[in-house]
Amino acid sequence: MLFGYVGGQITNNVSVAIIGAGFAGLRAAQRFEELGIKYTVFEGSNRVGGRVYPFSYWNGYLQHGAEYVNGEDNEIYEIVKKNNLLSPTEIDEEGYETVVYGREVNNKLYNIWDKFESSTNEKLERDGANKKIFNKTVSERIDFYFDSFLAPQKLTQSEQIVMQNMNKLFKNQYQMEWSASANDVRVDSEATLNQYGFKSILDVLTSKVPVNKIKLSSKVVNIDYTGNKIKILLSYGQSYLFDSVIVTSSLGYLKQYKNSLFTPSLSATKSAAIERFGFGNNMKIFLEYSRPWWPRGMSTVQISGRVGINGNGNSLEDELMVFQPSLWASNILVVWIAGNGPRKVSKLTDSQLITIINNHLTTNLKDVYTVSNIQRIYRHNWITDEFSLGSYSYISNKTCSMNTDDLKLLRDPILVNRKPVICFAGEHTDTEMYQTVVGAARSGLREADRILNYYSSL
Ligand SMILES: Cc1cc2nc3c(=O)[nH]c(=O)nc-3n(C[C@H](O)[C@H](O)[C@H](O)COP(=O)(O)OP(=O)(O)OC[C@H]3O[C@@H](n4cnc5c(N)ncnc54)[C@H](O)[C@@H]3O)c2cc1C
Known about the structure:
Pfam families: Amino_oxidase (PF01593). The protein is α/β, with parallel strands linked by helices. Helices cover 36% and strands 20% of the residues. It has two domains: 2-52 and 194-277 and 397-456, FAD/NAD(P)-binding domain (3-Layer(bba) Sandwich); 96-191 and 283-379, Polyamine Oxidase, Chain A, domain 2. The protein contains 14 helices and 23 strands. The chain has a seven-stranded mixed beta sheet with strand order 7-6-17-18-19-16-20, sandwiched between helices. The two termini are 13 Å apart. Residues 1-5 and 179-187 have low confidence and may be disordered. Bound molecules: flavin-adenine dinucleotide (FAD).
């Protein structure tokens, strides 16, 4: 039995480095703590949590990163239940308001749209199981289904324009949720949390890892596994020796630094999988108002087709489509941005951004709501975050067209004489729950156990 070794001779002499104090790294650390295996966590930034990033607001915490918990049969959901973190209010799926060229979409068109949306969702799901269609992007497939749906409908030209904009919003939703793909992520149910949400979950995880075992502001620039021990080199020149290492850097980080982070370099197969697999770039901007201008019960306002602008624009405003009130901070509206939006936003100051969003909302919603001015914004740009370099992973068309098991290639450890010298964890390595915090935590536990199993089998 494994526990026979714990704290014993074999694991006593082993020391492990964990790169990253996100959920994958913290879960691995927690496991080593339970087992009495020596470890050090190196975290490049000055905080723990990684892409779980709560910040204090009013009587709770808003979340720059993860916000919902996927599925109920997992450890993260257990923390949610145990600490009463479920939101007392749910998002009202009926509370959508869609505005196209400044006008609310009418019921007739909504009903037609609903039929298209539900049949297309089914088709996309079916496509997910059919490898042959992966030479087409999700967006191309949606357009194909849309064109064949629209043709037999007897709609006026202006009604068709509204439907085309609804289609644009639909595609945007896919881009938000899946970044680019609509295939086999296991969605499960998504639990909505209260105002403490991920702050409390993070607190539970960190409470099990002593502070002195996490080295903050310690960016690892090289992992050298040519010798008997593995040398971890930090950006300020200090180096440390370990028996095994768990790397939890995001896929975005690995894409950027895979050639300089490892000595010797990663195998061509692993490198190619890192290149192929998708990594998205979503972000949120929290808009603070002195009081809400939107009606109670509105869960989302979507804007497509800008007043006074014809055709497909390419400006930032064209990416500002989805606005959702916070469920508990009643004066906060959250705008979700994907596509080219985050890059554009990263070049603007807060006051430039406030002006653009104020104009956008007042111009396009003037016939629907009396919009007031934004007081302040809060944002964290994941695409320019030095350590994330994007939001979360997705199965790309390249991965699908290769017919390779890239998630496995991404998590395969580097073994030297059977010894796992470098292990790979992080959301992008979990087969069932990649993209998610649940997947990240599962991956940390998986790699900690891989290391334990090896050393306890000696
Ligand atoms: C906007 C947004 C919304 C999201 N919403 C949800 C959601 O609702 N539900 C959900 O389940 N998931 C959501 N996610 C995804 C979720 O946040 C991630 O899947 C999860 O947090 C990833 O955890 P991780 O440990 O794999 O990686 P990370 O959290 O990225 O942790 C890796 C850590 O390693 C550090 N690091 C990297 N490289 C180095 C280095 N060289 N040296 C030292 N330290 C390094 C980083 O600073 C970071 O702290 C969202 C993500 C974003 C960006």
